[in-house]
Amino acid sequence: MLTFIGLGLYDERSITVEGQEALRAADRAYAEFYTSKLIGTTVESLEDHHGIEIEVRDRPGVEQHPEDVLEAAETEDVAFLTAGDTMISTTHVDLRLRAHERGIETRVIHGVTAQTATSSLTGLQNYRFGKATTLPFPYAHGAEGLPASVTETIEENRERGVHTVIYLDIKVGHERAEGDEYMTADVGAELLAEAYPDLVGVVVARAGSPEPLIEAGTMSALADRDFGEPLHLLVIPAELHLLEADALVELAGADRETLEVA
Questions:
Q1: Which domains does the chain have, with CATH numbers?
Q2: Phi, psi of 93 (to 5 degrees)
Q3: Of all helices (H) and strands (E), which one includes residue 30?
Q4: pLDDT digits (tens, 9 = 90+) for 112-155
Q5: Deepest of 10, 137, 175, 202, by most Cβ within 10 A of its Cβ?
Q6: Is 0.85 topped by the overall pTM?
C-alpha cells in the first residue's frame, strides 16, 4: 500500500486527523519538500511528533529513481508526504501511476491547499479563480523580463474575469543559494511591476500559520513593503464582485479607489 498524505500548510499539527492516523500506522515514510515546504517545522519535529522516521527525497529521487519506494510499498504500508494537499503536483500523480502499473494499491489523504486558504483569507470567491502560474527567479528561466507563461496566464485570466494565483519560486539546495531560497512577495511584485506597475495585487504570507498576513496594493507599492518570513504568494484579482471588494478593503487594507468592481 502506498498512501499519499498532504501535511497541510504550516507545521507538524497542520495534518488532518485521518492523515495523522495513517502516518503513525505506516511501516515507513518518505517525503518531498521541493514543490513546497512546511515553514513552521522541521523534519526532526515531524518525526518526533508522529513517531516515525521520514526519508526526504529530492526531485530525482522521486521523479527518476522511485524504485525503492515502490518496492517497499509492494510488501509494506508506505506513506508519501508532501506539504499542502498531495496530488497537486504532477510528480506525485506520476508516482501514483507507477504504483498502479506494479499492482500496488494506493490511497490519497488530502490536506489544506494554498489556493483554498488564499480564498478563505482574502474573501475572494473560490469559484472565480482561474489557471495559476509560478513566477521563477530571473536566473532560473534565463530570459529578460517576465516569462510568457506568467504574462499569458495573467492576461487570459483577466479576459475571462477570473483571479490569478501566482506562486513564488522556491529553490531547494540550489547552487546559487546558501541552503533554500524563497522568493518573497516584494521581490515578486517588483518583477511584476515591470509590466504591471498599477495593477492591484494581494499578498498572502504564511497561510496556515497562527498569524497570516494579507495586504493589497498596486505592484509598485507592494514592491516597497516587507512581508516578513515566507512562504508568500500573490493574487491578481479580476473585476470584483461588491462583496469581494468589501473583503479586500476590510481584510487586506485595499484602497477601494484602485479596485475594479463590477
A1: 2-109 (3.40.1010.10), 114-258 (3.30.950.10)
A2: -65, -40
A3: strand 28-32
A4: 999 899 999 999 999 999 999 999 999 877 777 899 999 999 99
A5: 202
A6: yes
